[in-house]
Amino acid sequence: MTSRARLQNVGQIFAWPAVIAALSTIGLLSALLGDGIWDGVSWVVLALPVALYCGFVRRGA
Q1: Per-residue pLDDT at 2 exceeds 60
Q2: In this structure, how many other beta carbons lie within 10 angstroms of the beta carbon of residue 16?
Q3: How far apart are CA 41 and CA 56, in angstroms?
Q4: What is the pLDDT at residue 32?
Q5: Contact 41, 34 (CB under 8 A)
Q6: Residues 23-41, buried b or exposed e (16+ Cβ, 10 A)?
Q7: Angle subtended at Cα 59 by Cα 8 and Cα 57, rounded to the nearest 5 degrees
Q8: Alpha-carbon distance 56 to 20, whole Å?
Q9: Is the pTM here over 0.85, yes or no?
Q10: Where do the structural domains in the chain lie, given as residue ranges?
């Protein structure tokens, strides 16, 4: 075990993926059901997982 590794419970492991899933669901629903401002909301919210992925790849995590 490396010094970076630490024990985490299930809530800590799935907290951020659950938040990202909830935001993605909100973004998809706003894109499907709304118009006008909701289109902008969907763009911003659905770009978040892509931005997080790019950030983690760039960081090397």
Answers
A1: no
A2: 10
A3: 23
A4: 94
A5: yes
A6: eeeebeebbeeeeeeeeeb
A7: 90
A8: 14
A9: no
A10: 10-59
Cα three-residue angle 55-8-15, rounded to 5 degrees:
55
Cα gap 26→28, rounded to integer Å: 6
CA atoms of 41 and 60, how far apart (whole Å):
29
pLDDT at residue 6 above 90?
A: no
The single-letter DSSP state of residue 6 is -
Nearest one of 44, 49, 20 to 34, comparing CA atoms: 44
CA 15/CA 34 separation, integer angstroms: 28
Task: Output the six-digit token pair for 53.
Answer: 């992925």
The pLDDT tens digits of the residues spanning 15-41 come to: 999 999 999 999 999 999 989 999 999
